[in-house]
Design goal:
Chain lengths: 203, 203
DNA sequence: AAAAGGTTTAACTAAATGGTTGACAAATGT
DNA sequence: ACATTTGTCAACCATTTAGTTAAACCTTTT
C-alpha cells in the first residue's frame, strides 16, 4: 500500500475540487479543470472519487461541515442571548472573510439540488432551533426582550451576517465602493451587526 | 413581415428561457430544454437571439429591470425613513412571494459573471445611494436616529428582506418548518422586518 | 530480484451540447 | 398570380465533456 502518495493525491484533488466547485458551482465546474488545478491526470479524479457527483458531494459535505457547527454558537451555547449575538457575529464574519465563497456556494447548491440535501440531513444531523426557541420565549416572557418570535430573530441574525457576502457584487455597485472600501464596511460589521440587533430587541 | 407570429414566438421563447434560466442558472440551462419548454424548434432560439449568451442576457436584463426600480423606494423617494422602510419591506416581500426565484437568480449570476454586469451599468443606470446617505446623515445629526452609517442601514434593509428567499432551503431545515409554515413566517415578515429595523435605529 | 498490488498516465469512447444548414411553408408586396 | 421576404423545422456538424481502458510505473513484500 502506497499510503503516502494516496493521501497526498486524494487531498490535492479535494483541495483543487474545492477551489473549482466553490468558484463555479456544480454545473459550471469541469473535471478537466479540477485535474489541471491539482496538477494531475483526469483519471485520478475517477480513481479516487468515481464520478463528478461523488466528488462534488465530498466537497459540499466538507464545506457544510465547516459552516454548520458555527450555528451552534447561537442555537446551543449556554451564554446569554446578547453574548451569543455578539460572539457569533464577530466569529462568523471573521471566518467568512477567510472563506468568502463558502456561504454563496452552500446556499446556491441547496437551491439547485434540494433533494440531495435531504441525504445529508440523516447523516450529518442538522443544528436545531429548539433550545434557542425556549431561551427567547423565556426572555420575552420576563420582559427582558421585546416580543419577537425566535424564528424571526434567528433569520435576522443569519441575514445580517451572511447576506453581505452573498450579495457583494450588487452591494458594491449600489454603494459605489471599491473593494477595499467594501472590505472596511464588512470589517465594521463585526461589531455593527450585533449592536443593531441588540438595539432592535432590547427593551 | 409576419409580425404576429414573430411577436408571439419571440415572446414565448423569452418566457420559456426565463423559466429555465431562473430555475437552473446559465450553466445548468440547456438550449434544448428551453426550446421544449417553449414548444418550438431549437433553431428558433438562435434565429431570434443568436446565441445562448445573448438569450441569457435578455433574460437577465428583464429580471434585473423588474427588481432594480424597487430599490428606488428606499434610495430616492421623498418620504421619511420610517415610511420608506415600512413601504419597501411590505412591497418587496409581496413582490418576491410572486417571483420567488428572482433574487437568487440575480445574486447568483452577478457572483458568477462579474464583468458582464459592468456592461449593464452603463446602459441601465444603477440606483445610487447618494440621496439616502444625505437623509440618514441628517437624521442622525439631529438626533432622530441612532448613529449608523447609511451604508450599513441599507445593507441591513436589503439583508433582512432578501435573505429569507435566498436561503429558504437552509432555513426550512434549521427551523424545521413545512412549506406552509415557512410561507406564514415570510408573510409575517411583511410587517416584522420594518418593526425590527425601526426599533434598531430609533432613539 | 521478482512477484504483487496499488497508483498514474495517454489514448480512447459515447453522449451531450451549442450552433448551422438547406429545404420548405407562410406571409407580404407588386 | 407570382416573386420575394420571413418564419419554421429536421437533420447535421464540431466541440466539449464525463467517464473508461489498458499499459506503464512505483513501492512494498517475499
Amino acid at each position: 500500500m502506497n499510503k503516502r502518495k494516496t493521501n497526498t493525491t486524494e487531498a490535492s484533488i479535494l483541495k483543487a475540487a474545492k477551489t473549482i466547485f466553490l468558484h463555479k458551482g456544480m454545473d459550471g465546474a469541469r473535471m478537466q479543470e479540477i485535474a489541471d488545478e491539482a496538477g494531475i491526470n483526469k483519471s485520478m479524479l475517477h480513481y479516487y472519487f468515481r464520478s463528478k457527483e461523488l466528488l462534488f458531494k465530498a466537497v459540499f459535505m466538507e464545506a457544510f461541515s465547516t459552516l454548520a457547527p458555527q450555528l451552534n454558537e447561537i442555537l446551543n451555547a449556554d451564554s446569554s442571548i446578547c453574548d451569543k449575538i455578539k460572539g457569533f457575529s464577530h466569529n462568523y464574519i471573521t471566518f467568512v472573510i477567510a472563506h468568502p465563497y463558502l456561504p454563496n456556494f452552500i446556499l446556491q447548491e441547496m437551491n439547485r439540488n434540494n433533494e440531495f440535501v435531504n441525504d445529508l440531513i440523516s447523516k450529518n444531523h442538522f443544528p436545531s432551533i429548539k433550545k434557542f426557541k425556549l431561551q427567547v420565549k423565556e426572555k420575552v416572557a420576563d420582559g427582558t426582550l421585546r416580543p419577537i418570535k425566535a424564528e424571526h430573530l434567528f433569520i435576522n441574525i443569519m441575514a445580517l451576517n451572511i447576506f453581505p457576502f452573498v450579495a457583494s457584487p450588487l452591494l458594491k455597485k449600489v454603494l459605489d465602493t471599491s473593494d477595499t472600501q467594501f472590505k472596511n464596511l464588512i470589517e465594521e460589521r463585526k461589531t455593527e451587526v450585533a449592536e443593531f440587533i441588540i438595539n432592535a430587541i432590547k427593551v
